[in-house]
Amino acid sequence: MVPNMKVLIVFAHPEPRSLNGALRDVAVEALQAQGHDVRVSDLYAQSWKSDVDRADFPSLPGDARLAPAAASKLAFEAGTLTADVKSEIEKLLWADMLILQFPLWWFSMPAILKGWVDRVFAYGFAYGVGEHSEKRWGDRYGEGTLAGKRAMLIVTAGGWQEHYSARGINGPIDDLLFPINHGILYYPGYDVLPPFVVYKSDKLDEAGFEAVAARLRERMSTLATTPPIAYRRQNGGDYLIPDMQLRSGLEDPGVSGFALHVGRSQTRHDEPDTLGSATEASAAVA
Ligand code: FAD
């Protein structure tokens, strides 16, 4: 018996008939068939405003200097964030599971989705939470407002899986997605599941699509049970406070860079044993 989940998909593609649009429909159908409640924030369809500016803070006096973080804090505390932002925050609080879905554009998320994060992840809600002192650097990286909830990415990329492997020229996919998985999702508390990545997506034909859809359905059926990426918790003892450096000797030999912040011996998704065969690579899931 799969426990009922509330799932929010934040979808960032301008064309509903795109590959991304078709995969979103597959995900929604699969989730609803399991009895989950699903809501979709379709950012282009909503004409989402992606830039942070004065209009976001209607209670800020006209002659006041705009300091975005301070204005965000005041507006969140006073309940004066704009209605579109409040509505997205309400959805995040409602959902047990957040999925961000997007095509990889210039090695990152489309600007409209970054703008959703910039505006919705307000000060006091997603950052600036908890005690900040010499003894504690806030509730973040595994703690915070969204702790206890899960999140994952659905990403399509034009490049091959090999190009995003440990020695691939594009850089390892886990490193490219680290700022999103660790910096945006883990930061306010989410447990982050391994991403679902479609490689060679521009070359996908109907048979390739069916293979990808089958893998996506499988991932949608294991959202509650898939182990999250084992990012280290800020306040779990692995980091020195207040300089927030990983204590020496905790890492596996030879590990450096972003991988330092994943607990010992967890398989990275760009390691050779997770690479499919060359023919499978177009439909591979990382
Ligand atoms: P679409 O163009 O909609 O479709 C892709 C293919 O899937 C088409 O051939 C389509 O026929 C086929 N398809 C099969 N079945 C279906 C179905 N049922 N419904 C719809 N289509 C189907 N790639 C990288 O790897 N790294 C980058 O940094 C990068 N930067 C980019 C920057 C920009 C500005 C752009 C425009 C592209 C970039 N790309 C990059 C490529 C990009 O990631 C892909 O074009 C994108 O992921 C493809 O997804 P889509 O939904 O737009 O596909």
Automatic annotation (TrEMBL):
InterPro entries: Flavodoxin_fold, Flavoprotein-like_sf, NAD(P)H_dehydrogenase_qn. Residues 5-219 form the Flavodoxin-like fold domain. The keyword Oxidoreductase applies. One of its GO terms (cellular component) is cytosol. GO terms for molecular function: NAD(P)H dehydrogenase (quinone) activity. Residues 265-286 are annotated as: Disordered. Coiled coil: none annotated. Gene3D superfamilies: 3.40.50.360. Keywords: Oxidoreductase. It comes from the Bacteria. Belongs to the NAD(P)H dehydrogenase (quinone) family. This is NAD(P)H dehydrogenase (Quinone). The lineage of its organism: Bacteria, Pseudomonadati, Pseudomonadota, Alphaproteobacteria, Hyphomicrobiales.
